[in-house]
Amino acid sequence: MRFDSPTETIFYTIEQTIKEYRKFAQKKIKELLTDLSLDQAMVLIIISENPKLLQIEVAELIFKDYASLTRMIDLMVKNGYLKRQVNKEDRRRSHLKILAKGQKAVKQLQPLILANRKTALTGLLEKDINILDKHLKKIVSNCTS
């Protein structure tokens, strides 16, 4: 294997792809919900699908550290998307409840996310997307084993 410049590797292209998609998705979300970020949208969707998840588990799913997620949740509580409830079994932990504004946002975000994905994947065949997904998961596996 030859040594390529960092900008001439597949890893650079993967990073560039992620950054461009995040910028694109953030712009579309801001057009719909001006006080919600892409990461906050991900938090809302994850909590709506998995209401029993611990905050640390949510942080791992969105690739954020616990402190960053805590700040994000503080803002979402302040903006009326979420409510913290004390966990009766373990008072050190809190349960996150999606409020009406958060539920409305999740409903609004679902079609937007599908449209974003469709736009980003335009021109790619489903079989090619599946092959790419398989290869990317293999890279992840290689790096985590």
Task: Describe what is shown at a glance.
The chain is mostly helical and 145 residues long. The chain contains six helices and two strands, in the order H-H-H-H-E-E-H-H. It has a two-stranded antiparallel ribbon with strand order 1-2.
Give a verbal description of the structure.
Helix 1 (10-32) packs across helix 5 (100-120), helix 2 crosses helix 5 and helix 3 packs across helix 4 (66-78). 66% of the residues lie in helices and 7% in strands. The chain has helices at residues 10-32, 38-49, 55-61, 66-78, 100-120, 126-144, and strands at 82-86, 94-98. It contains six helices and two strands; from the N terminus they run H-H-H-H-E-E-H-H. A two-stranded antiparallel sheet has the order 1-2. It is mainly alpha-helical. 14% of the residues are buried.
Based on CA inertia axes, which overall geometry fits? globular
Helix/strand order = HHHHEEHH
pLDDT under 50 segments (min length 5)? Answer: none
Read across the widest sheet, the strand sequence of neighbours is 1-2
Report the mean per-residue pLDDT as an integer.
93
Number of strands: 2
Beta-strand percent range: 5-15%
Gyration radius, to the nearest Å?
18 Å
| Oligomeric state as shown | single chain
Distance between the termini: 21 Å
Helix content: 55-70%
Biggest sheet layout: 2 strands, antiparallel
Number of helices: 6
